[in-house]
Amino acid sequence: MTASDGLTPVRVAVVDDEPDARDRLRALLAESPDVRVVAECVDGADALRTLAERPAADAPELVFLDVQMPELDGFAVLEALADASAALPAVVFVTAYDAYALKAFDVSAADYLLKPYDRARFERALARGVAKARAARRAPTDDLRALLAVVRRGHVAERFVVRRGGRLYFVRAEDVEWADAEGNYVRLHAGGATHLVRDTLSGVESRLDAERFVRVHRSAIVNIDRVASLEPYFHGEYVVTMRDGTKLTSSRTYSARLRALLK
């Protein structure tokens, strides 16, 4: 099957918790030879499984993604995919709230549909989404990761999503005992296990509760509730012993905040 311009149709997923909304999108998409619907998801968790676990050759390249959904909303789905190092598709956000739509559009989503939308508005959004998906075939971009950086700013994470053995797992932020940098990843230490998240340490720090977590070194963050002891070291530095027995050395740059939080 070929699209109207002779190219392979773009693989599309529809993600919306409202059956009527999915039906409308499916009907409109069926009229376009430029796309092929390969998945229909009923909520955020279903979308996460579909987007993360499909083989690359059959993975959606464009997603019509509802922003407001129970449990995992549209932004949480993308955040989870980014944490799991999955490739991010082009996205057309679908929302009933203008504030969400404007934020999504301003930070490089393919487009947005503000409910209720008409056929002409849908066709414009579809054209932009198809163009972005095809451009990504040639040269993948980090536009959606830029979007997530905006969404995350000032937002405390409730959980992190990690990939292990081809599956996705949730790690509650409050269970993280300490974290350290490992190349392009951050290691989260929780419950005697280590989990890798694809992010910078600064990125993880910005998503943790500043009242509970503190940077002790340029390459380490600790949960102050899991600190067993603090011993003076040289030049204003400290040896931080965690409850799991790990010993970390704080740098002078971060020692003042560490002392303040532990008072």
Description:
- This protein has 263 residues and is an alpha/beta fold.
- It folds into 2 domains: 10-151, Response regulator (Rossmann fold, 3-Layer(aba) Sandwich), CATH 3.40.50.2300; 173-262, LytTr DNA-binding domain (OB fold (Dihydrolipoamide Acetyltransferase, E2P), Beta Barrel).
- Helices cover 33% and strands 30% of the residues.
- It is built from 8 helices and 15 strands.
- It has helices at 19-30, 44-53, 74-83, 98-106, 119-138, 143-152, 201-206, 252-262; strands at residues 10-15, 35-41, 62-66, 90-95, 111-114, 159-164, 167-172, 178-182, 185-190, 193-197, 213-217, 220-223, 227-232, 238-242, 247-249.
- A 5-stranded parallel β-sheet has the order 2-1-3-4-5, sandwiched between helices.
- The longest helix is centred in the middle third of the chain and has 20 residues, at 119-138.
- The protein starts with 9 loop residues before the first strand and ends with a helix.
- The model has no long low-confidence stretch (mean pLDDT 83).
- The CATH class of the largest domain turns out to be Alpha Beta
Total number of helices: 8
> Mean of the pLDDT scores?
83
Give the strand tally: 15
CATH topology of the largest domain: Rossmann fold
CATH homologous superfamily grouping of the largest domain: Response regulator
The description of the largest β-sheet is:
5 strands, parallel
Helical/strand content category: alpha/beta
Which spans of ≥5 residues are poorly predicted at pLDDT below 50?
none
* Backbone shape: elongated
State the helicity in percent bands: 25-40%
Estimate the strand proportion. 25-35%
Q: Note the gap between the termini.
A: 67 Å
As for the number of domains, it is 2
Radius of gyration: 22 Å
Spatial strand arrangement across the major sheet: 2-1-3-4-5
- Which architecture of the largest domain would the CATH scheme give at its second level? 3-Layer(aba) Sandwich
